[in-house]
Amino acid sequence: MVDEALSAGAVARRLGVAVTTLRTWHQRYGLGPSRHEPGQHRRYTADDLARLEIMRRLTAEGVSPAEAARWARQAPGAVRVEDLPRSRPPGVRDGGGPTIPVGRAGPAARGLARAAMRLDSTAIGETIARSLADEGVVATWDRLIRPVLAGVGERHAATYALIEVEHLLSRCVSEAFAALSRATRPAGPPRILLSCADEEQHTLPLEALAAALAEAGVGHRMLGARVPSPALLRAVDRTGPAAVVLWSHTPATADPTQLEALVAARRRPLLVLAAGPGWPVAALPSGVVRPTHLAEALALVVAARDSLEQPPST
Ligand code: B12
Asked: Which of 105, 100, 103 is nearest to 119 (CA)?
């Protein structure tokens, strides 16, 4: 299962629980790390992890923590999966119930998906914050958050369920990106304008771009969801941005006249990006660029900002 002993943070990530939950399980139920090397923090072994996996699964299914801990302490070896108790109260579904498919994404994404299924906003927030600090915004969005969001969308489309999971997860993602942005100071004036198309409520990819810009110290303005075309044009006129990114997630909000108005604006931005899967690739006004992923959009807007800042060559 695992070759090396793990830290509490790594175990929390794998299981999709908060570090504070691990601490409680250790203090109250004796399910702590067993490897101890002098002068170092205790580490979790593969057997410790197997016990905690049982604890996580049973508590998620509604078994009381004390009873779950009794089963967990017998593992590994002494417990067979079919012997485990199944006292799941109505409405509590995990483990054997529906899960969020995350494709080939790694253990952290599976942990995030499990935390989302449990509506555990503390664990969701901790998992995302840890990844933002360790991996940065682009990797966190592409490898951790996006697979889970796509999985929630897929499961919802198939079952009409998980709306509460989608809403809670979306909110936690927004909060994590906003916290990162608050902790940074952009250098220079905000030359990038981010906006959703009229009636578009899917803001998270733009929030990811905003956080990536903040991480890179690039100033920007974010207008957010559902921006009517005249309001966007007024914002362009008042702020003269180097680049405007207009997000549309579905064909229903992808009216190309919004883009036409931008390229015809009095203070025409150097770069207009039609971002998001909603835009019809074949019907974009000329001069409009369509990035397909976060890193590409980031590189394009930073380049536009840089060329506006550069003094004219003599
Ligand atoms: C979270 C979510 C919501 C949240 C949004 C919260 C928020 N603050 O953003 C809420 C609950 C508000 C919501 C509402 C709705 N939603 Co919604 N939602 C989603 C969900 C689960 C994730 C959206 C997201 O952030 N996707 C980002 C990533 C996960 O998408 P991706 O496909 O991997 O990304 C691709 C590209 O976009 C690109 N990309 C990714 N990130 C970035 C970043 C940049 C900068 C760039 C350039 C590119 C890029 O790379 C990927 C490869 O192509 C999706 C499922 C999905 N697969 O997207 C449904 C989904 C988009 N929603 C859907 C629907 C139907 C709706 C509603 C109409 C539901 C309703 N009946 O009310 C409303 C729409 C309201 C509106 N007018 O906008 C459908 C759209 C179907 C369609 N194609 O028309 C989806 C696909 C779910 C589904 N499978 O049915 N939703």
From this structure: 100
Give the pLDDT score at 2: 41
**Residue 284 DSSP label:** P
Contact 206, 245 (CB under 8 A): yes
pLDDT averaged per 10 residues in sequence order, the chain, 314 residues = 74 89 90 81 87 83 78 69 51 52 91 95 96 97 97 87 95 98 89 97 98 96 98 97 97 96 95 97 93 97 87 58
Backbone angle region of 15, left / alpha / beta, with phi > 0 → left and psi within -120 to 50 → alpha: alpha
Q: Indicate which atom in ligand 1 lies nearest the CA of residue 154.
A: 89
CA distances (Å), origin 90, targets 62, 86, 308: 9, 12, 59
Q: Ligand 1 pocket, 170 CB below 6 A?
A: yes
**Distance of alpha carbon 174 from alpha carbon 168, whole angstroms:** 10
Q: Find out whether the beta carbon of 250 lies less than 6 Å from any atom of ligand 1.
A: yes
Q: Helices marked H in 118-263 — which ranges?
A: 121-135, 137-139, 146-159, 163-182, 204-215, 229-239, 256-263
Pairing between β-strand 218-222 and β-strand 243-247 as defined by DSSP bridges = unpaired
Predicted TM-score (pTM) of this structure: 0.78
| Sign of the CA dihedral running 145, 151, 155, 157 | positive
**Number of other residues whose CB lies within 10 A of the CB of residue 294:** 21
For residue 263, what are the contacts with CB-CB under 8 A and spacing of at least 6? 272, 285, 286, 287, 288
Q: Whose CA is nearest to atom 41 of ligand 1?
A: 205
Q: Which atom of ligand 1 is nearest to the CA of 204?
A: 9
Strands (E), the chain: 187-196, 218-222, 243-247, 271-275, 288-289
Q: Give the span between the Cα atoms of 297 and 299, in whole angstroms.
A: 6
**pLDDT (0 to 100) of residue 206:** 98
**pLDDT value, residue 90:** 35
